[in-house]
Structures are given as C-alpha cells and as structure tokens.
Design goal:
- The chain is α+β, with helices and mostly antiparallel strands and 113 residues long.
- It has a domain at 13-65.
- 59% of the residues lie in helices and 12% in strands.
- It has a three-stranded antiparallel β-sheet, with no helix packed on it.
- The chain is flat.
Length: 113
Amino acid sequence: MLVARDRAPDVVQLGPVLQREAQQHRAIARYRLDHFAALAAVDEDLAEPTNWSGELLLYLQEYDSTAAAALTHDEMGKAARDLVPDDVGKVFAGAFQITRNRRGNLAITRRAA
C-alpha cells in the first residue's frame, strides 16, 4: 500500500532553490513566533490592555533597543559638522556630502551613486 507522502519528492531532490526557500520560510516563521510570544506577554506588561497594546509594546521595545545607536548617530553627526569651517558651503567626503543652507545649518547626506 502506498501512502501519498511516499510519492512526494524529497526536498533534497528538488534542488537548492527549494532548499533556500524552505530555509527562508523557517526563518520567517521563527521571527513571527518571537512576535507572538511578545504579544502573549502583553497582558502582564499593561495594566489596561487594548487591541493595539501588543503592537505598541513591540514598537516601544524596538525604540528602546535603538536608543544607543540614535545617540551615537547624533553625536557623530555633530562632531562632523563641528569640523566644517563657517566659510565652507559644501564638502565632499567619501560617500557623503555636507552642505550649508542659507541659514548656515549643515546637512549630511549620502551622495548619489
């Protein structure tokens, strides 16, 4: 007696493309499970949970985890701007461009490729 599963080709036989897709789907599933676990903890974290509490907590957790990077970003931008003399209107430095507007404020941008 044959079972339908016995007739299905093995993923290994179908080639590397399907194997890569299977790995990507497993990674997505793990990512989703992490979020579902965080949502399950919402009731414990909030005194008065709402239908948007879970999403709010996810955003706040990400906000908190990126605070140090944002602070470093601001500090490095300020340090770079402080190096530009007052009489310079435009600076090209590697992949970046620093420009001064009419008010005298400096903006750092990536140069177009």
